[in-house]
Structures are given as structure tokens and as C-alpha cells.
Amino acid sequence: MAIILDGKNLREKILADLKIKIDKFSKKPSLAVILVGEDPASKIYVKNKEKTAGKLGINSEVILYPDDVDEETIIRKIEALNSDDEINAILVQLPLPKHINKERVINTISPQKDVDCFTMENVGKLASGLEPSVYPCTPRGIMLLLDEYNIDLTGKHVVVVGRSNLVGKPLALMALKRNATVTICHSYTNNLKDITKTADVLISAVGEVLIEDDMIRKNSVVIDVGIFRDVNGKVRGDVEFDEVSKSAAYITPVPGGVGPMTIAALMLNTYELFLKQIKRSS
Ligand code: NAP
Predict the structure, then answer these.
(1) Hey, what CATH class is 26-112 in?
(2) How far is the CA of 239 from the centre of ligand 1 (A)?
(3) Same fold, 26-112 and 137-259
(4) Catalytic annotation present for 277
(5) Pairwise CA distance, residues 248 & 212, whole Å
(6) Residue from 225, 229, 235, 263 whose mutation best tests the ligand 1 pocket (most atoms within 8 A of CB)
(7) What is the domain partition of the chain in residue ranges?
(8) Is 116 one of the annotated active-site residues of the chain?
(9) pLDDT in tens, 161-214
(10) What is the domain class of 137-259 according to CATH?
(11) Catalytic site residue 39?
(12) What does R_g of the chain's alpha carbons equal in angstroms?
């Protein structure tokens, strides 16, 4: 039976450590989150972020816009947040409505306040093997989880299923930086199973039930990034957990695996941007 990679437990540990550090400052880190529209999942994510920030003493400001807000309003707000010394970190919750130019909005964020490593400057640094301002939250959360269980990626074959800018691509780059041999798969990949079966570490970031027991290598590490509701409204991930956990060596549950680690990484990133801003202004 696989060892469960417990993201909930690690999140609590990370947040407890972080709170001690934040408590030492009279000035507190601040995070601004822009949420556009009524996407129910986004609203829940933003609420959780706000709640967690509150517990740590991080100031969080959520800026809500209706679905039909015009692009210029968002751009102007981000510009104001960029020049506001009281704000250390900015996050635009995705997805954005179709009429908004996502690239333009994201690239208005100052790279120094880009808490999820979204901007071209930070993505370029990540791709070049340089240090971005901070690493993207979900991939960073996964790396923290692997570190906690002493899972070293050096020389391992890491297969990432999913090539989104948010998860799959940065994850692959970060695994590469850790000297893994990386394969990225997507919806056009032929013979997916033949590839996933060769993975020492399989990371699935798709958003549908996909990974069955016959797709994994025995005693491998299986990381499930997917999170969605099935037809019965149950929260689940990409991996058939009950079967796969019998043959994997390590596995993340959904919920309770990668999700809590994303929040922990967001809080760490906010704190680190806060420290960098203090350093710059001193
Ligand atoms: P996305 O932008 O929709 O990307 C999904 C990726 O999966 C695409 O690259 C797509 O390939 C690939 N794909 C779809 N069907 C496939 C198939 N049958 N075989 C192989 N690849 C397939 O989604 P995302 O933003 O990366 O998110 C992925 C999942 O992770 C979602 O469930 C999301 O909710 C979850 N998520 C969780 C967290 C967390 O903190 N736990 C954070 C972020 C995202 P193409 O590129 O060819 O279309």
C-alpha cells in the first residue's frame, strides 16, 4: 500500500513556521487578489486564500469585478497596486472572462510582485534556469511535498501529464532544474500509457479521470494535481486512487494532497516577496 503524501499536514507545519516568522515583524506582508466574475471554483479558492492569509497575519485584499468589467479597469487597478508600497504580492485569479486579454493583464503585474510566476519576465527566467522572483505556487507546493518525504528527482524519469502554463510546463521546468529526465504529455500524446508506465514519478495535471492502475509503474510516485467534481458532486482527482494506491510507493490524495500545498506555497511566496521588498527599500 502506498505511503500517502499528506499535503494537509505539511501545509499546517509550513504555516505554523511562517506565522512565527511573520509575528516578528510589526509591518505585515500583503497580498492583493483580483477576482473577475462568478466562477464558483475560483470564488472558493479565493476565499480559502483569504482565510489562510488572515490566520497568518498576512493582509489580503480581494478586488472583485463583475463578469463584464472592461480590461482597462483591471489594468489600471494592477498599475495602482504595482506602485502601492503597501502591497507586496499580486495574484490574478484565473480563468478570466473571454473578452479580457489574459496575457496583457498578467504582464501588467510587476515581476517583483508576481506571486504565482505568471509574467513573461519570471517565466523566461524559469525557462532559462535563472531565479524568478518566486516559483509558481502549485509546482512549488509539489516540490515541497516531495522534499518532505525525501523524494529526490535526480536522474528520475518524471512524466508530467498536462502542459498548461499554470501547472504542467512550470512543473516540468522545475523537475528539469532538479536534474530529472522529463517527459511532458498532453491530449495529442500517442500511446500515453506506454509513457506513463515508464515514470518513476508520474504527475497528472489534467482535470479528468485518466490515470488507472495499468498506467503506472509499480512502486512509483504518483502526484495528482487534478481537482474537480464528478457527476455525483464528489471532489476527486485524475487518478483512480483506490486501485493505484495499491501499487504505487507514494501517492497524493485528492483532496488533501497538492491543493493544500498550493495555498502553503502562495503564503510562502507572499512572505518572500515581502522580504525582498523590505530589502530593496532599506
Ligand atoms: P488545463 O489548462 O485545462 O490543462 C489540462 C491539460 O491536460 C492540457 O495540457 C491538456 O492537453 C491535457 N489533457 C487533457 N485531456 C488529456 C488526455 N486525455 N490525455 C492527456 N492529456 C490531456 O488545466 P490546468 O489549469 O493545468 O489544471 C489541471 C487540473 O489541475 C485541473 O483539474 C485543475 O483544477 C487542477 N489544478 C489544481 C491545483 C491545485 O492546487 N490542486 C492548481 C491548479 C490546477 P492539451 O494541451 O493538448 O489540451
Answers:
(1) alpha beta
(2) 13
(3) yes
(4) no
(5) 11
(6) 225
(7) 26-112, 137-259
(8) yes
(9) 999 999 999 999 999 999 999 999 999 999 999 999 999 999 999 999 999 999
(10) alpha beta
(11) no
(12) 19
